[in-house]
Design a protein that fits this description.
The chain is an alpha+beta fold and 533 residues long. The strands form two sheets. Strands 1, 2, 3, 4, 6, 7 and 9 form a seven-stranded mixed sheet that branches. Helix 6 packs parallel to helix 16. The chain is elongated.
Length: 533
């Protein structure tokens, strides 16, 4: 028996897997930091410090992802290159998504289609770049695709449907975006298999019950835990109320109606078309229309569409494309391999264009974290828009992301961040997209400096006579020209360069050059203010 072809295919398959993993590792620092990454890292770090999700730290995502990575944050400790390690930690989610995709493709088509699909999905720019970021969507997509794979392979066994439900429930515990995915899946499952379900209603009922029980295990465990920890109300606010609250912008009702009409037409057409299909063809139709309809939902009515929203359905869309090319004979026998090679090269070229692997896109974040770690203590608070400081508590509870910015803009959230900074005696801040009043307060009371980290302080112009200034944040300060300490007289006391100053008005004697008053702790750690204009 000739075993050369299977052996050659196995070598090529595993070789392709190793190439994808090698590229995945090579690119860990190449793509720019996304603001979601430090937010998720900060939540996981907070849990590692003993904080409760939702009650002690804001998180508008499910608790599973941060809970799973909390121990890792604790073991890694405070380090400036933390995001490189966290990106490395989510590589298994990327691998799991590809493995699940392979099993679905192998079941619905063939090994050749499965191999080609995994290669093209793994190199697809959205999947390759977004799956490499430290974000909840990595786990969400991997768990959803794994649940789909188990469902495809279940073959009517209740245990298989239970484990499928377990994975879907885990996906829901990572991201609420699982709900629209699941609703669309259930609608098309009913459209495609309703006659079969009625004919085999006893078996279908058992499997449906097993699926439902499995789906409730992980979310149910988290709900029980949150209730016992008296954290259910904050969790409801963060996960549901905050995400669903109006932003003040006009809602896309026309697009929603258009989407519903289109979706109903797709469901009706699918139900009619599925009557003449065999079992495998029904599954192929299901993954196609499910992926298409969810993509249309994102394009048409999703409030804030992002590339990562497509992660669970891009693999299925790619599977449909590769399966169509393989089954329709639109290309000559050797044309399929050429097609896959050309598409793979094009995808890799797009990845290189978007994120050159020779670029260290995390360098700025690492430099900023180095200043935060060196110049602040664990007891200090640090203001940032979306937890860019990672290892320090934030004085302001909500993160300032897209929804919050829209609500600030439309007056649905109070711009009272300055009061929180004063109340928590916050002496360090990182620039971000703050609402106007908060931005003005930070610019006025925090000096920009090393690695873009702002520290509490004021800039004072040169003065021929006595000058008055008002300090908002009490503390230990250093008077400097930016490079060295300068001895001055404040409030008519003997000259010195280091002062303990209370909040409120002060007087400074004449000085012939512009001066800066900066937080002493930052100055002593080596942080230096940016020169005044």
């Amino acid at each position: 028996m000739n075993t050369s072809i299977p052996t050659r295919r196995s070598v090529m398959r595993w070789g392709g897997v190793l190439v994808l993993l090698g590229l995945r590792l090579l690119w860990l620092s190449a793509y720019s930091l996304n603001s979601d990454e430090p937010q998720h890292a900060h939540v996981a770090w907070s849990l590692a410090q003993g904080a409760m999700p939702y009650r002690d730290v804001f998180d508008n995502h499910g608790p599973l992802f941060s809970t799973m990575h909390a121990a890792l944050l604790k073991d890694l400790g405070e380090r400036s290159d933390i995001l490189w390690w966290l990106r490395l930690a989510v590589v298994p989610w990327y691998v799991l998504a590809l493995v699940a995709t392979w099993f679905i493709a192998r079941r619905l088509h063939s090994r050749g289609v499965a191999d080609a699909t995994v290669l093209l999905v793994g190199l697809f720019p959205i999947v390759f770049l977004k799956s490499g970021e430290f974000r909840t969507d990595d786990a969400w997509a991997a768990l959803w695709l794994s649940g789909m794979a188990v469902a495809v392979l279940a073959r009517g066994r209740a245990l298989g449907w239970f484990f499928s439900g377990l994975l879907f429930g885990a996906a829901l515990s990572v991201s609420q975006k699982t709900l629209p995915l699941a609703v669309i899946a259930l609608v098309f499952a009913a459209a495609i298999w309703a006659p079969w379900w009625w004919e085999h209603r006893r078996l279908a009922s058992v499997n449906a019950f097993a699926l439902l029980v499995g789906a409730f295990v992980v979310p149910g465990a988290f709900v029980l835990w949150l209730v016992l920890q008296h954290d259910a109300a904050p969790a409801w606010y963060d996960i549901v109320a905050y995400n669903m609250a109006p932003t003040g912008h006009s809602e896309p009702h026309g697009r929603l109606v258009g989407y519903l009409v289109l979706a109903i037409a797709i469901v009706g057409g699918t139900a009619i078309y599925a009557r003449r299909l065999d079992a495998m063809a029904r599954w192929r139709a299901f993954v196609a229309v499910h992926a298409l309809t969810f993509m249309l939902l994102i394009w048409c009515v999703w409030p804030l569409p992002t590339e990562q929203d497509f992660l669970p359905v891009v693999p299925m869309a790619m599977l449909c494309l590769v399966g169509f090319v393989a089954r329709s004979s639109v290309l000559p026998p050797r044309g399929n391999a050429v097609f896959v090679a050309v598409v793979a090269v094009a995808e890799l070229s797009l990845v290189v264009a978007r994120a050159p692997p020779w670029r260290n896109a995390l360098a700025a974040e690492e430099a900023q974290l180095r200043v935060v770690i060196d110049c602040t203590n664990p007891a200090d608070t640090l203001m940032d828009a979306k937890s860019g400081g990672i290892f320090r508590r934030r004085p302001y509870y909500p993160v300032i992301e897209s929804l919050a910015r829209e609500r600030f803009e439309n007056g649905r959230m109070p711009d009272d961040i300055a009061a929180w900074l004063i109340a928590n005696h916050t002496m360090a801040a990182i620039d971000g997209r703050y609402p106007p009043a908060a931005q003005a307060f930070i610019v006025r009371n925090y000096r920009p400096g090393t690695a873009g980290v702002r520290m509490a302080g004021l800039g004072l112009p040169a003065a021929d006579g006595q000058q008055r200034f008002t300090l908002t944040l009490a503390g230990d300060y250093v008077v400097t020209d930016g490079q060295r300490e300068v001895s001055v007289s404040i409030d008519e006391r003997p000259g010195a360069s280091r002062w303990v100053l209370g909040a409120g008005p002060h007087t400074l004697d004449a000085h012939p050059e512009p001066l800066l008053i900066v937080w002493r702790q930052a100055w002593d750690c080596g942080w230096r203010p940016r020169a005044q204009p």
